[in-house]
Design brief:
Tetracycline Repressor, domain 2; transmembrane; Vps53; 28 helices; mainly alpha
Length: 754
């Protein structure tokens, strides 16, 4: 303890003078505790001294034990070395004998195999000279295996001599085989009955030779078979584009005629398959030469017929030789573009489509197993598609021009035949010209996708873009136009659009048709990107076309709003001619309000039935944002306003608000009622605030500047309520100042504010 702690302890033990009597007992207790601690310390010191001595003795014993163990280990190691030396001395002679036995066995085996190799080479030489191909093939396999055992003895003169002799025999066999195969196709196979069997046996010899021999033999055979093809179709008579189909008929007839003869080739050689590859390469070169050297522009019908026959031939080869499996039929997928069917019909159609695809995928496999068992090459992996037809790509510009002309002519025709009306019972309210346009586009896409999926299809897609933009222009031009020019400006008709009930329906049909074209053009782009080669897929985009149709939709809806507004002109004029300053009593809503209600009641149900909820909501928002401020501005065009006039106009304003709020239910589209109601309430609240304020000035007549100031005051009050947090101080000051201004002039009944 420190000094302060000791003092605290003593004061705690002896707090009073009377407690000092316990000092002596406490001192005795403390002395006893000290003696007990000293005894404990002494005992611990003695015990520690004894423990240190014992620890030293234990350490010395452990050290001696380690030394004894190390000595024993060294002794054991020495004895082990002595034993190893003794065993090696004993086994030295046995090891020499073992090596001698192994060398003798290897020598005997090598000599035996050498004898067999020499004998086999001599027999092979005899077989080669007699053209005994079947026996020579088996013998050659045995000789090759024996030669593999002597790879390590290549430098031995005898082995080198045998290898050179074997090489010469292989060359003799190769020359004999090539000589015999040169007679194939010359007619000797019908004269010599055993020639085909001999050639079949020679194929075994070719398999036993190097793989390069087989490649050379097959290439020579294919080149010899196609020699007559080159001679026939390089002539002036058949070297024409309209004779392309005869080329494919020639090779199919050639394969069909020689099918039995070519069975002499092993199936693993894929001879018909290799022949077709070389045929396609030569045909592509010749057809490309014809297309390049044409002096005049090719006839589109002949060009397309040649391309169609080429694509069909490539598909036949693809199916015959098992390329990537059955090709996907894209016709049904293209037909799905722009369909208007319910879910159950879509599910049924999808089920039928995939059942059809499954059945089609099963049929080619059966044909391979039954009809073309020997000629089919399952999993050969060569893609014949585009091998010949791709050379047509740079020369298909006339076809694209013809397709564009056809689509443009069809567009003009369907637009001219368009009635701009929808038959009763139609579910989509889309113009027939739009559906017919996409029907023509789908037909064009099917025709082109069957011929090309590369640059030509991409060029045709550009044509689709131009055709759809032209149709958007046609729709845009059909919209009613407002008055323009000097005369319209002088008569106040600038920007006004007069529309009839039929015009309103036509505008709705244009909106729906533009939306259909917007949606379907996107589907068309997706389908083309799936069909076209991946190299061109990134360039397939319909965003510009969709922007065109979006602009048509916006313009049509704005035109519809302007048309409805134009119908209100008469009623707004009637409102300004009402003698608001001389009204004696407040009655029912005014006649101009009834007129506006009649106009809306006649147009809104039709528009709500024809427009989709999204575009009807857009129309309502535009109408409310236009009619509300227009009604508000029309109040300023009225003459002097009395108290009764202000009450009547307030009643008319509330009636107008009720009419506007009932529009969604009138159109049977209540999904947008909540947001629209807030929009209408906000637009009409300005007029209500203005008229409520003017009603407070009892018996007062206000000129136009006074109404302007009242309007300013009401507007500022609205701004103050809507922007409490941002502009609270500024709006409050303006509101308070103008309130004092009007409060001061309220007492002067003769004052006219100017």
């Amino acid at each position: 303890m420190d000094k302060s702690s000791a003092l605290e302890y003593i004061n705690q033990m002896f707090p009073t003078e009377a407690s000092l009597s316990g000092v002596e007992p406490l001192m005795q207790k403390i002395h006893g505790e000290i003696r007990r601690v000293d005894a404990s310390i002494l005992s611990a010191v003695r015990q520690q001294s004894n423990s240190g001595t014992k620890a030293k003795e234990d350490l010395a014993d452990a050290t001696r034990a380690v030394e004894e163990l190390s000595y024993k280990i060294q002794e054991i190691k020495s004895k082990a070395e002595q034993s190893e030396a003794m065993v090696q001395e004993i086994c030295r002679d046995i090891k020499k004998l073992d090596f001698a036995k192994k060398n003798i066995t290897t020598t005997i085996t090598a000599l035996h195999r050498l004898t067999m190799l020499v004998s086999a080479v001599e027999q092979l030489q005899v077989m080669a000279s007699k053209r005994q191909y079947k026996e020579a093939a088996a013998q050659l396999e045995a000789v090759n295996q024996l030669c593999n055992h002597f790879e390590a003895y290549r430098d031995v003169p005898k082995i080198t001599e045998l290898r050179e002799k074997l090489h010469n025999i292989k060359q003799i066999l190769k020359s004999h085989v090539f000589s015999d195969f040169s007679s194939l196709g010359t007619g000797k196979e019908t004269e010599e009955t055993n020639l085909l069997q001999q050639l079949s046996d020679s194929c075994l010899v070719v398999d036993a030779l190097e793989p390069s021999v087989r490649e050379e033999l097959v290439n020579n055979f294919c080149s010899r078979e196609l020699t007559s093809y080159e001679q026939i179709f390089e002539g002036a008579e058949l070297a024409k584009l309209d004779k392309t189909e005869r080329r494919y008929a020639w090779i199919k007839r050639r394969i069909r005629t020689n099918e039995e003869i070519w069975k002499i080739f092993p199936a693993s050689w894929h001879v018909p398959y290799r022949l077709c590859i070389q045929f396609c390469k030569q045909t592509r070169k010749q057809v490309e030469s014809i297309l390049v050297n044409m002096k005049e522009k090719p006839v589109v019908a002949i060009l397309l017929l040649a391309l169609q026959r080429t694509v069909e031939f490539e598909k036949e080869l693809e199916n015959k030789f098992g390329g990537d499996g059955p090709t996907r039929d894209i016709g049904d997928d293209i037909e799905e573009i722009g369909t208007w069917e319910n879910n159950s019909q879509n599910i049924s159609k999808i089920r039928k489509k995939y059942e059809k695809k499954f059945a089609a995928s099963q049929e080619p496999g059966e044909d391979v197993k039954t009809g073309d068992k020997d000629l089919s090459v399952t999993g050969a992996g060569f893609n014949f598609r585009g091998m010949i037809s791709s050379c047509f790509e740079p020369h298909l510009t006339p076809y694209i021009e013809l397709e564009e002309k056809t689509l443009m002519d069809d567009l003009e025709k369907v637009v001219q035949e368009e009635t701009w009306d929808i038959e009763d019972g139609s579910q989509n309210n889309v113009l027939s010209s739009s559906t017919q346009l996409f029907s023509n586009i789908k037909k064009s896409l099917k025709r082109c996708s069957a011929l090309s999926k590369n640059q030509t299809l991409f060029n045709l897609f550009k044509v689709f873009q131009r055709v759809l933009k032209a149709y958007a222009t046609k729709l845009f031009g059909k919209l009613p136009k407002g008055g323009t020019g000097i005369v319209a400006a002088a008569t106040g008709m600038d920007g006004q659009i007069k529309v009839s009930e039929r015009d309103e329906r036509v505008i709705c049909y244009i909106v729906n048709s533009a939306e259909y074209c917007h949606k379907t053009s996107g589907e068309l782009a997706e389908k083309v990107s799936e069909i076209i080669d991946q190299h061109y897929a990134d360039g397939v985009d319909m965003s510009e076309v969709q922007d065109e149709f979006s602009a048509v939709i916006t313009k049509a809806l704005v035109t519809l709003v302007l048309g409805i507004e134009t119908k209100f002109d008469t009623e707004m004029a009637v409102m300004t001619r009402v003698p608001w300053s001389t009204l004696e009593s407040v009655g029912d809503q005014s006649g101009y309000v009834n007129g506006i209600n009649t106009i809306l009641s006649g147009s809104i149900p039709v528009l709500g039935n024809l427009l989709t909820p999204v575009y009807f909501q857009f129309f309502l928002d535009k109408l409310a944002s236009s009619l509300g401020p227009r009604f508000y501005a029309n109040i300023f065009r009225c003459k002097q306003l009395s108290e009764t006039g202000a009450q009547q106009m307030l009643l008319d304003t509330q009636a107008m608000k009720t009419i506007l709020l009932e529009i969604p239910s009138l159109a049977r589209q209540t999904s947008t009622a909540a947001s629209y109601s807030k929009f209408v309430s906000r637009e009409m609240s300005r007029a209500e605030a203005l008229l409520n304020f003017s009603h407070r000035f009892s018996g007062r007549h206000f000129s136009h500047p006074s109404i302007f100031l009242i309007s300013l005051l009401s507007s500022l009050s609205l701004v103050g309520r809507e922007n409490e947090r941002k502009n609270n101080n500024l709006c409050f000051c303006l509101f308070f100042s103008l309130s004092l201004f009007f409060f001061y002039f309220q007492f002067d009944s003769t004052l006219k504010i100017k």
